[in-house]
Write a structure and sequence with these properties.
heterodimer; A: alpha+beta; Arc Repressor Mutant, subunit A; 4 helices; B: about 550 residues; mainly alpha; 26 helices; elongated
């Protein structure tokens, strides 16, 4: 999810947390305490890169997707689509 | 205005990362708090409420600290930087360790741990009566002229020739110890002739039936079910044919005519207890082993001969109308039974009761046959204690066995747990001290120290449970007055403990190879998984 949120533009931690809550309409609840360790893990794996940038008179750490992260996102998306299709085929079967 | 960075720094401290990276993380988390705080204020919340909502985002700072470190370094937080409840920085972990060590100061705890040598291979007990242990005792005893220690060596040395040498010396120092000759009366080795030992015992204690029984045993053991039975089987039921053999019959006659019966159980108990105490082995299980190895005459031979007297001689005489002769045979058997019952412990007493019961039943029947009903009734009334002797003992032992069996299982369980946790605690201690000295010595060591932090307090708790489970059976050997008391109090427990041999009977025989195989497979699997993870990680890092 985080990789997808960073696909088109860099974002900072607070924004990522808010976006997950907003876009899932509260269905996915992401604890902030888990968000930052996850971002650091993604950064260690080289899938995202964090950098400090000035915003409104103070600096913020923005995360952007790396080439490796983009490739990972693509492969995870394919996996997720095939998985969700499979689940849909199962749960949306109509019996005559 | 809140100092959010200071607030985060204090709560995340210590975070053992490079200073620059640490400050970045602190700043980023401080911004998260500040943004949430501002948003809450903008939403109309009061200042305290906004602060509460902001801080509620990170409820477990210790957990966050560990997760942040793990995310950045791909490793556990150094064990000395952890501040969880089981961290080595907490004094109570060291208190638990000290208390665990203090358990060793408890006599009961040490005795309970030593008790595990019973189900875990009996090795300690075997060592206690080994040549390696007994030879120095013998040498010291010779120098000091300690006849009792020499007698102890004579009774327990695994080499019968060394034992007989020690016996000679002990008897030379103190002839009252001649009873130890009984050990050699049952020797079945070509290097030692038991006959002189039996003769010596008979000469020293001529009124005692015991030495004559030992003499008779030598023939009973080898011939009762062999040639004698085949030759005389047509006349007498096996193994009673052996009584035709004068080598068996004559010493048996002397035994049954003897004035008393003494298998030297009391002397042996006192000697074993004294020497074990002198040697610092205050262990009831060793005393049980020592006392339990005393020679017992062949009770089947005793029953065979008493049966011969009562059934073959007595009943035959009775049927022939020779009442006086029949009564004499019954009386001889009854008297021997009385001597044996009076002096012998355990199973010998039970057999003696059986002989007396059988004899008196025949005497009662004979008295009735002679028309002496009143005397018969009086005699019958006085035999109450002989009835149901076997049933009484069986019931007693059964109820004791059930309780003792449960206690033995608990002692074994907690004992094994204490041993396992003791090893883990020791390894944890070494790892923690090493990491204190060199924090970055090894990541795996740090991971182990983090995982094994549960060991010291668990060991203390397991130790307490072991002590509690063993407590009802905790005894000093000087608390016992006799072998009967020792066996009555503790034998069911120790027998259960030896019988509950998870290690020797089940684990070692059946599970050792499957377990080693599983461990090997698990190790190969873990290494492979680790290798795959490292490879995937390096591949993803190397991607453009």
């Amino acid at each position: 999810m985080i990789l997808a949120l960073l696909e088109h533009q860099p974002r900072h931690g607070y924004e990522i947390g808010k976006l997950i809550a907003e876009r899932s309409a509260g269905v996915v609840r992401f604890h902030v305490a888990s968000l930052y360790p996850l971002l650091y893990r993604l950064e260690r794996r080289g899938w995202v890169k964090g950098a400090w940038e000035p915003v409104g008179g103070r600096r913020r750490r923005f995360y952007r997707l790396t080439a490796s992260g983009r490739k990972t996102l693509a492969s995870q998306r394919i996996r997720w689509r095939s998985f969700s299709r499979a689940v849909n085929r199962i749960v949306e079967v109509r019996y005559a | 205005m809140h100092d959010w960075k200071e607030l985060v720094r204090v709560r995340l401290s210590p975070l053992p990362l490079e200073p620059g990276r640490r400050e970045e993380i602190i700043e980023e988390l401080a911004l998260q708090l500040e943004d949430a705080y501002s948003e809450a204020l903008a939403g109309g919340a009061s200042e305290p409420e906004a602060l509460r909502r902001s801080l509620a985002q990170f409820q477990d700072w210790e957990d966050l600290r560990k997760n942040v470190f793990h995310a950045v370094k791909a490793a556990e937080l150094p064990v000395w930087q952890q501040s969880g409840i089981l961290s080595p920085r907490r004094p109570w972990v060291w208190t638990a360790l000290i208390l665990s060590l203090a358990l060793f100061a408890l006599f009961g705890f040490r005795q309970a741990l030593a008790a595990l040598s019973f189900p875990l291979g009996n090795s300690w007990s075997e060592r206690a009566f080994s040549a390696r242990t007994l030879d120095p005792i013998e040498r010291r005893a010779i120098v000091q002229g300690d006849s009792r220690a020499l007698a102890f060596v004579a009774l327990h040395h695994p080499d019968i020739n060394v034992a007989s040498g020690a016996a000679e010396k002990a008897i030379a120092l103190d002839s009252r110890l001649t009873w130890i000759s009984a050990r050699f009366a049952q020797a079945q080795t070509p290097t030692l002739n038991p006959v002189p030992w039996i003769a010596r015992l008979q000469a020293w204690d001529p009124d005692n039936a015991f030495a004559y029984l030992l003499e008779a045993d030598r023939f009973f053991d080898s011939r009762a079910f062999g040639a004698a039975w085949q030759r005389h089987g047509a006349v007498l039921e096996p193994p009673r044919g052996i009584v035709i053999e004068s080598n068996f019959r004559l010493p048996m006659q002397k035994a049954f005519a003897a004035l008393r019966y003494d298998s030297y159980a009391r002397q042996r108990f006192e000697l074993d207890r004294t020497v074990l105490q002198q040697q610092g082995w205050d262990r009831p299980d060793l005393l049980i082993q020592a006392v339990g190895s005393r020679p017992i005459p062949n009770l089947l031979a005793v029953r065979t001969y008493s049966g011969y007297l009562i059934t073959d001689l007595g009943e035959t005489a009775q049927k022939a109308g020779h009442f006086q002769e029949a009564a004499a045979q019954y009386q001889t058997a009854a008297q021997f039974g009385a001597h044996m019952q009076q002096a012998a412990p355990g199973i010998e007493r039970l057999i003696a009761k059986g002989i007396r019961k059988q004899s008196y039943e025949h005497i009662v029947a004979l008295l009735r046959l002679q028309g002496r009903a009143e005397q018969a009734a009086l005699l019958e009334a006085s035999l109450g204690d002989l009835h149901d002797a076997a049933g009484f003992m069986a019931r007693e032992f059964h109820s004791a066995d059930v309780t003792a069996g449960r206690a033995a299982s608990l002692v074994l369980f907690f004992g094994v747990l204490v041993l396992a946790l003791g090893v883990a605690t020791l390894a944890w201690l070494v790892a923690v001290l090493l990491l204190r000295w060199k924090p970055n010595v090894c990541g795996v060591l740090n991971q182990f120290a983090s995982l094994a932090r549960i060991a010291p307090p668990s060991m203390f708790l397991a130790g307490l449970c072991l002590d509690g489970a063993y407590y009802p059976y905790l005894r000093h050997i000087n608390q016992f007055e006799s072998g009967d008391q020792l066996f009555g109090d503790l034998l069911p427990f120790w027998e259960s403990l030896a019988g509950t041999s998870l290690y020797r009977g089940f684990w070692l025989n059946m599970l050792i190879w499957p377990t080693l195989w599983c461990v090997a497979i698990a190790a190969v699997g873990a290494i492979t998984l680790r290798w795959v993870a490292i490879r995937r990680q390096s591949e993803s890092l190397n991607e453009p």
